[in-house]
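Supplementary material to the annual report.
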Amino acid sequence: MPSLSKVLQPIGQTFPSDRTAAEALAQLTASGAEALLIEKDGSIVGLFGYREALAVYADGSAPVAQYMRRPLPGRNVADSLESGADIMYREDTPVVLMTEDEGPLFRKTSRTVGIVSAYEVLEEIGKTTADTASNKVFAGRKDLGLNVPVSPCQRACPIHQDIAAYVDYVSQGRYLDSWLVIHETNPFPSMLGRLCNHPCETDCKRGWVQGPENAVSIKSLKRFATDYAWARRVKIDWQRAPENGKRVAVVGSGPAGMTAAQDLRLMGYGVDLYEREAKLGGLLSASIPHFRFDHDQLLWEIQMIVDMGVNVFLSKNVGKDIKVEQLLTDYDAVFLSVGMMTGRILPVPGSDLPEVISAMEFLRVRSYDIVPDNFPRGGDVVVIGGGAVATDAAQTSIKSGARKVWMVSIEPADRLPAFGNELVEAREIGLTLHTGVIVNAIKADASGHVSGVEFIRVDETKLEFDPESGKLLINTVQKLPGSEHVIPCRYAIFASGQIMDFPQDQGVPLTPRKLMEADTGGHTKVAKLFAGGDCVQGPSFIVDAVAWGHRTARSINELLGAAVPRDAKPLTVIETTDDHREADYYLRQEPPILPAEKRMDMTPVELPWNDEQAITAALRCFQCDTVHHVDESTCILCGACDDVCPEKALDVVVYGESRDTSSGGFVEICNTVLGEEFGGKAGKILVNYDRCTNCRICEDHCPVNCITFQRVRFRDDAMQMIPLTPVARVAAKAGV
Amino acid sequence: MPTAIRDGRTVELAMSSQFAFCFPNTSLAQAARMMAQNRVTELPVIVDQRCLGYVSYLDILQRYVKGLLAARAADIVRTPLPEVRPDAPVSEAVRLLRESGRQLVLVTTSAGMPVGAITARDVSRPRAAA
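Predicted assembly:
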């Protein structure tokens, strides 16, 4: 049992009790300490920390003695750590004075020798408490006697896909299994396999080490598995819960709305899906140009959701054709996921000319395979903006026949918000960048048509960017008078932001930014009304919208409480996984794209991987979701695994022996008494999974072969794969 | 030396956008380590970008004494943790800190999404400079 002497700290700075609180605060801040001990006549009488300092906010002129915390409890340094923790809890104080006895027996006095703060006690508790289930392990799963880690990629993914499992299935050639795992949480893998911002790859353990290592190509592997399933013409037939009689209206068929529709149908709710466009998909089908993805695959994924029994109402504009109030009357719940589908046109002179269009509208019209009116085939186009939408609009303009396309932005070329690879692709096919300028006016010729765009230079040395988001701080933009210049063109596209196009008289609570006001579960202040996706959080990524759909469906079910459990058989899948150390021979690869000369039309530019490329990319995964499985009936606690672990992630603890336990591990993977009755050893093995890289050297060096690596998955048999209905019929039925 | 100090800043300018927090399934031993490392006595419990409440060091100490540390943050979460909007004045955060007795006030958007935390230390430092 540790004593308080183990965590004893020196007294540090003291402060006279008769000086002012403001002075005490100044010294406290300058010292960097957590608190000052207040001294009077040579003894410690109280404590002045930041909590006490709050009083100084009103008036700090009074002596510090008026504000300090007192009395300060004390304990003997020989007392146990528990004793210190107990007095802190009972006295609600983060600091305890430490005293030491001195003097002969019967004349003992105590003197202050230091302090112990709650931080030292907490640190000691954290170190010495055997944590049988770390943050990486789900509590519910641990109850089943299984260690189920959440891998860093899965934790980073907004929809928590079981990434390590589907990547591993690709490495084994189980492509359809991989696709099924993806579909457990992701209804649009064909899109996200190409266009996801992949926060999973940012957190991939492969990329943690500085050097040539790079993250596993998770996004592209998802695309590969999806391509394979699409080529096999299969679809998923979900087992749904029985109909529960409740009806939900979902407004908007973007990724958030479609995901919510799927989840609600699975739970047995009747779903009516309203879409103002003439086709389903929202942003996916109306704003993302077709050269970025396989449109047929999107239709296939949308159709799988529609086939679950979703009633689709196309060209129905909720807010105009149908009032929200009416929906709230007709349905048990309403989910608004209308997105931000309207582009903003800056109100500069000439912005109302017929050849001025927003990028969102331009891309929307092009998504129907129509070239907008007035678009100058063979003429020049200026795209105003530096983000991803601007790049899409610029590339689409080039592919639609423009002669020369300019992309013009305030940000300098190295700070453009557009994705780097997309910008490179665009420049390869002829995009010209013009940076460090701001639009001043749209110029017209004598006949009232656009003849050019006037820009004015900005002082690039004064530009500042948000350190976290990297976005330009618009209030740092300073124009340089006299630097006005005109770029001649016949068409101007504004990619300068998006707004929500939804009537404000529908009783939907709005924020000052004119977004819908809802919490992250999609609840609004209006009963039965939910909102989610871009219309709540502003323009974001597709995967975030899918996460909104999942969360809101869960919230709706919590409100209505009508879901009946599916009659599906729960499955606990335990798989022993392969050793992937040969993966070190392979480097990360990006999927190839078409050469520039073949990218002049709307053909998808990203080329598929072949089996070899996909498998070698998948082999690079560390399989952070697998854990050691130690056969306790075989382990002899020899310590070989501990000795060879290059990451020092293992501790073999033998009762009665003093061994190094420096890994900080707290997940127990073995607890054995093998051989104890014969004078052998008893003990346990602990792992720190934040250090373990699943290199499996321990497995190789185990002399009794008691270590394997296993994955545990929990699923049910509600997903069945069946042959796909012919696509032509499907598309006609859904009107997509 | 000023006696009554006025702070015209908004919470957004005074808050820390990086703050320690834990999840409902964070073990108490882990929470204790996080508190020690980050020098805080209260940890917000965050799930799905929402704050459920906070874990207090007092509860961890009490459970340590009683030998009940085999639990998770969700088991000892206290509610509510006061929240303030980024555009509120710092004096509002101070009022919440004083009235609630908490070490920190969570800074959230109108949708309840945490964007930072403001502690007694954050609001007191500029006072000392004044």
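Chain A has a mean pLDDT of 85.
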